[in-house]
Amino acid sequence: MHVHDYEKLWLGLSLLLIVALIGAVTYGAVGAGVAMVDDSHETVDPDNLNDHPRFGDTGVHHVEGNQYDVNMLALQFAFLPTTVEVPAGSEVTFYVTSPDVIHGMQLEGTNVNTMVIPGEVAEITVEFDEPGEYGIVCNEFCGAGHHDMEGLLTVVPEDEYDDD
Ligand code: CUA
Fold first, then answer.
1. Ligand 1 — pocket residues by CB below 6 A?
2. For residue 74, how far is its CA from the centre of ligand 1 (angstroms)?
3. How far is the CA of 142 from the centre of ligand 1 (A)?
4. Alpha-carbon separation of residue 163 from 68, 118, 158 (angstroms)
5. What is the largest CA-CA distance in the chain?
6. If you measure from the C-alpha of residue 25 to the centroid of ligand 1, how many angstroms do you get, rounded to a whole number?
7. What is the pLDDT of residues 54-97, one digit of tens each?
8. DSSP conformation letters of 12-26
9. Where would I find the H helices in the chain?
């Protein structure tokens, strides 16, 4: 059987496309820090967050050097804290949980995006190199006030950051 050269070429390109698609889907599912929020690290009692060392004390905490922790609650229908300020050049780890239902926590314009599940702690680390503003939004429908859940993260120039 004779197969025309151009037909061989198209067959090859089609195969390549299939392999590339499977590769892209696989990478999107498990690559580049993509992970499910689960209880393999830390669980919390969603009914007693006030007494929790981390979530009884929400807000920005300086760890050391350029490292900061943000302890955050996503609840019906707000983020606590609502506004977050960190310096440029910082490495920020968000710890987010919920006292009520499943929420989302997404920083607009970035790939920071996690589910927030009662009893589980979503942990996500981000480096902020440049000053800027990012809206914080909930992207899981969580009730009648879902669309009101918003916050603001401001990255301020390092020399303007008030660290206390
Ligand atoms: Cu919280 Cu939608």
1. 74, 103, 138, 140-142, 146, 149
2. 8
3. 4
4. 11, 31, 10
5. 79
6. 27
7. 998 899 999 999 999 999 999 999 999 999 999 999 999 999 99
8. HHHHHHHHHHHHHHH
9. 5-30
